[in-house]
Specification:
The protein is α+β, with helices and mostly antiparallel strands. It has five helices and four strands. Strands 1-2-3-4 form a four-stranded antiparallel sheet. Strand 2 and strand 3 form a beta hairpin. It is globular.
């Protein structure tokens, strides 16, 4: 009976090993990328603290979320900033921890989760920019 139990246990471990080995590893930002993002988010948070929508728009990829109706700072303020950057969300972004991610296409980004919203900052050829607001599901 003990021999049969050992065989079953060994078989289970052998079958489990590939699944454990194939588990995705959390992406880790390089020190240089982290330093670049830290500089960007410090400026972004300062703009939020000052409630400066023009400065935030200057750190945003426009047209925002590829919406041609949000292609400049005035449109960004009217259609995005006023509704998405409430006092509560501005405070959340200022104190929230940014989570690093790298997608399968090697795009690198940081996200800050604020209740039902996710604010995304993506590395672009021009440096980091605010690129997206998503629903936290």
């Amino acid at each position: 009976m003990k021999f049969l139990l050992r065989i079953v246990l060994a078989t289970a471990l052998v079958n489990l090993a590939p699944a454990v080995a194939a588990a995705p590893k959390d992406a880790v930002a390089s020190p240089a990328l982290k330093k670049e993002f830290d500089g960007f988010i410090e400026k972004f948070r300062a703009a939020l603290k000052a409630n400066d929508s023009a400065a935030v728009a200057g750190m945003t990829r426009l047209p925002f979320m590829n919406d041609s109706a949000i292609r400049d700072a005035a449109q960004f303020h009217a259609k995005t900033y006023a509704s998405s950057f409430t006092a509560k969300n501005r405070a959340c972004i200022q104190r929230g921890k940014a989570i690093y991610d790298r997608d399968p296409y090697k795009n690198e980004s940081y996200s800050v989760f604020c209740g039902e919203m996710i604010f995304v900052f993506t590395k672009t050829p021009a440096g980091f920019l605010f690129t997206d607001i998503s629903v936290n599901d």
